[in-house]
């Protein structure tokens, strides 16, 4: 189905104008990406407040754009998701959490009907590039001159012995055990996921930037996230193994050079890096690392919940009970969480939508295999059920076909 084009000339992403309209557009998209994921807001505000920030941002974005272009397929998926979430919430008496999820679904649907996929790609990569650069600068300062960090406002966070400082567009942790780049997000692993999504968009388009690829890769490495770095390597493997028609020779050679330099660093002076990244996978005295154990529990126990009610799921109340009782309060496998909570009927749609989002224009056995692994891995380490970006990607997956390489507002 072809919808009416709602972005004509002078849009925010194809022109570098510093008009108030364009600045507000970037600000709205920034809020929608970060409001429910930012470290400061997650630790100081309720889910309701973060939801209201998202609602304000989407309403302002609609006013700025001036119109909404409705897509039939996306709207059908939206109505099904809305109905299933509402029924599940009513039946399991989990209305507060359900309202937050419904708000994320509504905002995701509205966003994809207001912002074209090509515009989203440009805005998302620009925002994440800025956050990556900013975080690398503040992270370097925290390592070189940690005394300067203590001058920043402190963020109170329950649990843990480390202190956290607010550097505006990034958060600095003064842990004496290991220095990791949090970026703006609630956890380094979450930051690595957002960065990997930006790296995917940057690589799998016609004009990838060497500068952007380098910064995003460096930022991912600085998170010391095992899954984040693994996702980056899988993504790079999928890119360089594509047909030459889709791969810029300069980008491919640069990536291979970057990987060579990184391997050389690991051989010469990478012992500490290897310890903090791969140490989580070691088994000491027959015991698995706590971080790894939590992620295994998230898969096992939510998998059991899904198998106990594969069609309808166990509902959000039971999901919360399982999360607190068996997953140390952290059910990190988003796809399994969706299946456990909503079953096949409600959980499959967002999963399929996300796969479709990442599989556009992927050709060849190795690239497809790599992108399958990348898609599963990227949602296996954090819970995105209440994060708006998950549903934005889901709806783009269902309503875009050829726009991955074309500046088009056509949905199929």
Description:
It is a single chain. This protein has 412 residues and is mainly alpha-helical. Helices cover 65% and strands 3% of the residues. It is built from 17 helices and five strands. Strands 1-2-3 form a three-stranded antiparallel beta sheet. It has a two-stranded antiparallel ribbon with strand order 4-5.
Summarize the structure.
This protein is mostly helical. The protein has 17 helices and five strands. The strands form two sheets. It has a three-stranded antiparallel beta sheet with strand order 1-2-3. Strands 4-5 form a two-stranded antiparallel sheet.
Return the structural class.
Answer: mainly alpha
Roughly what fraction of the amino acids lie in strands? Answer: under 5%
List the strand order in the largest sheet. 1-2-3
What would you report as the Rg, rounded to the nearest angstrom? Answer: 21 Å
Number of strands: 5
In percent, how helical is the residue content? 55-70%
Low-confidence stretches: 1-16, 401-412
Multimerization status = single chain
Straight-line distance between termini: 5 Å
Order of helices and strands: HHHHHHHEEEHHHHHEEHHHHH
**Largest beta-sheet details:** 3 strands, antiparallel
Report the mean per-residue pLDDT as an integer.
81
Number of helices: 17
Overall body shape = globular
């Amino acid at each position: 189905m072809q919808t009416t084009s709602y972005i004509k000339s002078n849009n925010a992403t194809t022109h570098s104008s510093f008009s108030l309209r364009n600045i507000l557009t970037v600000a709205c998209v920034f809020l929608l990406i970060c409001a429910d994921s930012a470290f400061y807001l997650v630790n100081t505000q309720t889910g309701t407040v973060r939801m209201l920030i998202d609602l304000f941002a989407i309403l302002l974005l609609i006013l700025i754009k001036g119109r909404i272009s409705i897509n039939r397929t996306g709207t059908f998926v939206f109505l099904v998701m809305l109905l299933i979430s509402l029924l599940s919430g009513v039946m399991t008496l989990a209305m507060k959490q359900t309202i937050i999820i419904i708000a994320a679904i509504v905002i995701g649907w509205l966003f994809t009907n207001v912002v074209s996929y090509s515009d989203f790609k440009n805005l998302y990569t620009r925002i994440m590039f800025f956050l990556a650069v900013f975080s690398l600068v503040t992270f370097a300062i925290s390592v070189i001159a940690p005394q300067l960090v203590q001058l920043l406002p402190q963020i109170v966070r329950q649990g843990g012995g480390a202190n956290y400082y607010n550097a505006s567009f990034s958060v600095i942790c003064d842990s004496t055990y290991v220095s990791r780049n949090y970026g703006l997000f609630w956890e380094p692993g979450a930051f690595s996921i957002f960065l990997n999504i930006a790296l995917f968009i940057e690589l799998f388009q016609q004009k990838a930037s060497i500068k952007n690829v380098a910064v995003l890769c460096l930022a991912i490495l600085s998170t010391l996230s095992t899954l984040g770095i693994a996702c980056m390597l899988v993504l790079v493997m999928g890119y360089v193994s594509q047909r030459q028609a889709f791969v810029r020779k300069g980008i491919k050679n640069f990536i291979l050079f970057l990987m060579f330099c990184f391997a050389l660093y690991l051989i010469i002076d990478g012992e500490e890096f290897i310890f903090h990244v791969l140490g989580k996978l070691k088994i000491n005295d027959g015991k698995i690392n706590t971080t790894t154990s939590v992620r295994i529990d998230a898969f096992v126990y939510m998998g059991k919940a899904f198998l106990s009610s594969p069609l309808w799921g166990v509902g959000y109340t039971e999901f919360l009970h399982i999360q607190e009782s068996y997953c140390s309060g952290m059910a990190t496998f988003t796809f399994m969480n969706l299946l456990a909570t909503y079953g096949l009927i409600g959980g499959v749609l967002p999963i399929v939508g996300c796969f479709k989002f990442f599989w556009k224009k992927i050709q060849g056995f190795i690239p497809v295999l790599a992108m399958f692994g990348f898609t599963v891995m990227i949602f296996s380490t954090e819970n995105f059920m209440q994060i708006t970006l998950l549903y934005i990607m889901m709806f783009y997956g269902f309503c875009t076909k050829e726009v991955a390489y074309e500046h088009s507002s056509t949905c199929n």
